[in-house]
């Protein structure tokens, strides 16, 4: 009796891809922008910035593995046009992907505790809320990511919390400049998430995953994406007139953002939208870096 071919198991390259490096800009940009806001008030600290970066990076790796696991066991990744998923493809056992997620969350927790004890102990509670938010995005019996709240959560955790938390742990305060930086990073980070959900509207709607993109529909999702991508540059103008004219350096990232938004504006679908995530992420990094430089110079 012939034997069935052995199924290929996940390689280190597959696990690396499963961590979704193209989304890591969502973790790096808030720390850059938050450190810039702290520097504007003379309170930047390189080692606290590195700790904050470690927390943010571990969180985004954890949430990516958690989404892979939760979507995979629910079957919502069975028919998708995006990058390969470890659980949905069968390359890795669901338990292994879940374990990877919680290892990353554990690393974020350890680094977060260290950062909190170096600044304010109550930030430990904020960190615990971030980890819970990362898991319940697609995990648990009532994931809020399936209720159209994903972009709101991304704006909150990778915008407001990450940027203002970074600023507070270094400068000991939250400022109007920090709020503007948080708004800029948060809106563009939410745009990255929205582009991902725009691509998956057909498969998500069929599987019952009701994202914001599914609720809005294709046309209105594209309009919202463009508005979210434009928001940081409006904030650059605002900062330029109210804080330091150096903030206008943020406008240098506008061409990159425009290139990233082109497939969305052109009506691309499916795999044609995959480059939008990476390009928008790079535009967010460029905006955060330019705003950091502006805060230092200002």
Explain this structure to me?
Its main location: membrane. Belongs to the MenA family. Type 1 subfamily. InterPro entries: MenA, UbiA_prenyltransferase, UbiA_sf, UBIAD1. It catalyses: an all-trans-polyprenyl diphosphate + 1,4-dihydroxy-2-naphthoate + H(+) = a 2-demethylmenaquinol + CO2 + diphosphate. By secondary structure, this protein is mainly α. Helices cover about 70% and strands about 0% of the residues. Helix 2 packs antiparallel against helix 8 (about 175-200), helix 6 runs antiparallel to helix 7 (about 150-170) and helix 8 runs antiparallel to helix 11 (about 220-240). The longest helix is centred in the first third of the chain and has 29 residues, at about 45-75.
List keywords for this structure.
13 helices; mainly alpha; single chain; globular; disordered N terminus; 71% helix; 298 residues
* Secondary structure tally, helices: 13
* Beta-strand fraction estimate: under 5%
- In total, the number of strands is 0
The secondary structure category is mainly alpha
Low-confidence stretches: 1-5
H/E element sequence: HHHHHHHHHHHHH
Alpha-carbon distance between the termini?
76 Å
Please give the radius of gyration in angstroms. Answer: 19 Å
Query: What is the molecular shape?
Result: globular
Organism: Corynebacterium mastitidis
Membrane topology: Multi-pass membrane protein
Enzyme class: transferase
Pathway: Quinol/quinone metabolism; menaquinone biosynthesis; menaquinol from 1,4-dihydroxy-2-naphthoate: step 1/2
